[in-house]
Specification:
alpha+beta; Dna Ligase, domain 1; 3 domains; about 30% helix; Rossmann fold; 8 helices; D-amino Acid Aminotransferase, Chain A, domain 1
């Protein structure tokens, strides 16, 4: 079986994705599979064999090796950001009828879009921060936003991950810089109220048709919030299991499962919460 471990992406998250892909490569059993490293980057799609690049034929996701066409039997998707987390690669592979890991293109596109995800979850009475949606070019009044949301508040790209482009605005003098930072990642943003509480993260998956909630991790960042440095440069303490009462843990598990099922998820996912007044 030819396995494509697909990594990279078109955004600033590609660096993290390449690290994720290498971790997968190290842990797949080469005695069971013929494993290929596939880079999907803004400057091209290539298969890396012995340090050499072989271009991917996008018409059928194949490449030529030693004069012969090599096709893949399955794609292991480790791309961070677009086009691997927003549904584009999933839709492409589905058109080619190529099996791939993770959820389908619709769930990927939905959950990569913060505004749309929150819109769906609000219908199922999932609590969320108060937010304002805006597009590049909109006239945004910092005083009005602070009056509505209070200070501090967060400015986030609507479609991005790894906390790239995210700022915590503690004073209105920081607002314009935060807007520039977020709009550098996406043409749409969310401005959200600050939630003071305990931050947690929990994995959820569908296992044999049943939604299973995994261990809960408490996140204690060294920085002002769980930003890129805290996530990927070790500047946070991650405590598993989280220091929660049995009652709060039960609420987290119930809510995490509800989020997963409400979004129609499959495979692995992760849900992040802020615990406020014992409510996730």
């Amino acid at each position: 079986m030819n396995v494509a471990v697909v990594m990279g992406g078109y955004s600033d998250e590609s660096v993290i994705s390449l690290r994720s892909g290498q971790l997968i490569l190290k842990n797949l059993d080469p005695s069971k599979y013929k494993i290929f490293e596939v880079h999907v980057l803004a400057d091209g799609w290539n298969v890396i064999v012995d340090g050499n690049k072989f271009p991917v034929d996008k018409s059928d996701f194949s490449f030529e090796l030693n004069g012969s066409k090599c096709k893949f039997d399955v794609a292991v998707n480790t791309i961070h950001g677009t086009p691997g987390e927003d549904g584009h690669m999933q839709a492409y592979w589905e058109l080619l009828e190529l099996p791939y890991t993770g959820c389908n293109f619709y769930q990927s596109a939905l959950t990569f879009n913060k505004r749309d995800t929150l819109s769906v979850l609000s219908k199922f009475n999932i609590p969320k921060a108060e937010s304002i949606y805006a597009s590049k070019g909109d006239d945004l009044n910092g005083d009005a936003i602070a009056s509505q949301l209070g200070l501090p508040f967060f400015v986030k790209p609507n479609q991005s991950g790894s906390s790239l482009g995210v700022s915590k605005v503690n004073a209105l003098s920081e607002f314009e810089k935060a807007l520039d930072f977020a709009f550098a990642e996406d043409s749409e943003i969310l401005i959200e109220s600050f939630l003071k509480g305990t931050e947690i993260s929990v994995g959820v998956l569908n296992y044999h048709g049943k939604t299973v909630v995994l261990g809960i991790t408490e996140i204690v960042p060294e920085n002002d919030f769980f930003d890129y440095e805290a996530k990927y440069q070790g500047k946070s303490e991650e405590i598993t299991p989280a220091r929660l009462s049995a009652d709060v843990e039960a609420k987290v598990r119930e809510t995490a499962a509800k989020v997963y099922d409400s979004l129609g998820m499959t495979g692995f996912s992760r849900a992040d919460f802020i615990i406020m007044d014992d409510v996730p």
